[in-house]
Amino acid sequence: MEQETRLTESQPAVPGTVRPGGRTAKVRRAVLDATEDALAAAGFHALNMDHVAASAGVGKTTVYRRWGSPVGLVADLLRDMAEQSLPASDTGSLAGDLRANAALVTKTLTDPRMGAVFRAVIAAAACDEECAEALNGFYRARLQEWAPVVERGAARGEVPAGTDGIELLRAVSAPLYYRFMITREPLGPADAERAAGAALAAAGEGVFTTPD
Amino acid sequence: MEQETRLTESQPAVPGTVRPGGRTAKVRRAVLDATEDALAAAGFHALNMDHVAASAGVGKTTVYRRWGSPVGLVADLLRDMAEQSLPASDTGSLAGDLRANAALVTKTLTDPRMGAVFRAVIAAAACDEECAEALNGFYRARLQEWAPVVERGAARGEVPAGTDGIELLRAVSAPLYYRFMITREPLGPADAERAAGAALAAAGEGVFTTPD
What pTM does this model have? Predict the structure, then answer.
């Protein structure tokens, strides 16, 4: 199942930092998978280093030495999520791409496992500055990945030239996360459609156009 | 200083539940003020029942018996915030009222004390269902308080008849909370202006109009 990030698949670690497929990478993969399992099951407040080590089959000493604390685990999971960011849609129209983006975010947040993981990492970021920076990095990567859909839409004349793509994409995601994390209201396909439609309408009125 | 809620002022407790100004109300006020102080200072993950009791000058037994746990304290603080919801603006135009709403939300979230409190209660809601319900109740109260500005705007012809006021108000707040809590990006007056402008433009295009 496609998600905002390929969290559940095994991937080689960051190129350049460790030998792909090497022991260090395998340990990191096992520990981050166990961290994600724990966050999905019980949230950030219950994240326990010893349990993560045991469930990853990795020695406690290694986990404490490399990640230091539960927030260290969450921050590294977020860096891993950013590295594995999926490519953006290219449906042929900006309206189609924004609808695809809103649908993907909605599907991710309403997925029982991934919704719990996102709620946990956002809560962790509220408690710790390193997690907040890693969360910011994750969304920066996602927004950059999708920015070209707005450039293509502007080139096709679907939004005014000079439309700030990142700002338009923020406007698509914001109402979905607002219901999911802030007002704690139900979230569904109609909300995704409305979010994409509202962002596109505002862009059409030049609200996201930057002076150049 | 005006805030989204009169958190820092002493208020009589909920009418009907306890005698206003009575001992029960005074204990609740002292405990909720101490809870807010603790959340502002160190966040939800560091909230400690014994410290709250000591700083409120209330016996530990009372605090444990009435609130049970840190999440019980946060949930009751949120109910108190909802009860003390401030009236909406009435500037004479919908654009002015939405700008005032966006400015108020931005001012609250960027206030060092209140921003920390909001981040803490949202994180608490991510960890606990009772807090999530109380958070939902707080925003429901805020949105209801502001909905009449959209009804007045529709009556003046500033947005299409049948515009869903709550949905329009969600659209104003969402981008501000998204930067503050999700992407962890800076938030300022330009973001407030853009949020109000984007929501109004989308409303003008009929995005928030409900079929009747």
Answer: 0.91
| ipTM > 0.85, yes or no | yes
- A120, A173, A194 ranked by CB distance to B126: nearest: A120
* Residue A119 forms contact with B (CB below 8 Å): yes
Average pLDDT over residues B203-207: 97
Distance CA B142, CA B83 (A): 10
Task: For domain B22-77, give the CATH superfamily.
Answer: Homeodomain-like (1.10.10.60)
Cβ neighbours of A178 in B, within 8 Å? 170, 173-174, 177-178
Q: Determine the pLDDT at residue B210.
A: 86
Rounded Cα gap, residues B39 and B34, in angstroms: 9
What is the DSSP secondary structure assignment for residue B212, as one 8-state letter? Answer: -
Question: Average pLDDT over chain B, rounded to whole?
Answer: 91
Q: Best interface-test mutation with A: which of B74, B207, B208 has the largest number of A CBs within 10 A? A: B207
- Closest CB to B170: pick one of A123, A173, A178: A178
Residues B13-28 have a mean pLDDT of 71
**SS3 at position B207:** coil
Domain ranges of chain B: 22-77, 85-204
In this complex, is the C-beta atom of B74 within 8 Å of any C-beta atom belonging to chain A? no
Tell me if chain B has a CB within 8 Å of the CB of A183: yes
Q: How far apart are CA B3 and CA A211, in angstroms?
A: 32
Residues whose CB falls within 8 Å of the CB of residue B192, separated by 6 or more in sequence, listed in order = B99, B102, B103, B105, B106, B176
Which residues does chain A have within 8 Å of residue B199's beta carbon, measured at their own beta carbons?
198, 202
Best CA proximity match to B88, nearest among B176, B4, B172: B4
Whether A135 contacts chain B with CB within 8 A? yes
Domain B85-204 has CATH 1.10.357.10: yes
pLDDT for B202 beyond 80 = yes
